[in-house]
């Protein structure tokens, strides 16, 4: 069992579940000076969340890569010279202050020599399956015709403590990622350019699938909410609008249009961005009909309630580390998880030392 009987009774209580809707929404984000943390009620952390990650040993650089059900995936470089390669992965739980440094994959994390790169990684953790096991997916890309296509995925299992590199087996040879990804139902889901599909791979690298997306999927993004896969289409027939689709029938890969909204409603008094140039959606609330977006021109975090059809400016955000070549804004929705989670060997300070 992952949790005690008393805790299970608490989280099964309807009144407790209703109270979840009053909790502030939490985001980690990349800032120019490091990692930031904001809530829908202001800066700073919660009493039981170490949002500064102060429990981690000193490192010269820490880059936040992903967040999944209470765990964070980081790419770190040691603060001192070491025999260890320059960069490595750390998985941590800010709520319990646990952390583990992972062994090296076959390609160094963050490696980029213009021909091959391993700059993208994703975290897979599902506490409904196991409260201690997690997976890390490192995406290995190869340059062809000035673009990078996915040639392999290397997968780390905390259960075995090892990496397994798998050549891609999707029905398309050229799979170019847009950067949007989500872990759901045991699969990593990736949005890709031009093919009009979501590419999927399981935690063992054995099942490789694709799901056709609605419309042309030019700048769409994938997420999940309320137990369903969600797809955001920014190239709807009405250009400056978002269309939200839900995959309600997984057996037939059938999408249902859930909502459509114009950018004028989303951004209200601010300067209207071109949705064709960038997908502004950064996250969906896991339990209700709310999604979040970043207004780059107005430097604002905005929420939108699909039931009430109303946008709300959550807060201003001036210091967000944006990279021009990135398709995805550097926000990571965070749900605290207070159970013991980190599986595998626990590393100590000697990870960072000779």
Largest sheet: 4 strands, antiparallel
The helix fraction, in percent, is under 10%
Tally of strands: 24
End-to-end gap:
39 Å
Q: What is the helix tally?
A: 3
CA radius of gyration: 20 Å
Order of helices and strands: HHEEEEEEEEEEEEEEEEEEEHEEEEE
Task: Indicate the overall shape.
Answer: globular
Provide the spatial order of strands within the biggest beta sheet: 3-2-1-24
| Strand portion | 35-45%
| Residue windows where pLDDT falls under 50 for at least 5 positions | 1-22, 344-354
At the third CATH level, what is the topology name?
Neuraminidase
CATH C-level name: Mainly Beta
User: What is the CATH H-level superfamily?
Assistant: TolB, C-terminal domain
Mean pLDDT: 81
CATH architecture: 6 Propeller
Please give the domain count. 1
Structural description of this entry:
This protein is mainly β. It has one domain (25-343): Neuraminidase (6 Propeller). It has three helices and 24 strands. The chain has a four-stranded antiparallel sheet, with no helix packed on it. A four-stranded antiparallel sheet has the order 4-5-6-7, with no helix packed on it. The protein is globular, with a radius of gyration of 20 Å. The two termini are 39 Å apart.
Compact summary:
Pfam families: b-prop_At3g26010-like (PF24750). By secondary structure, the chain is mainly beta.
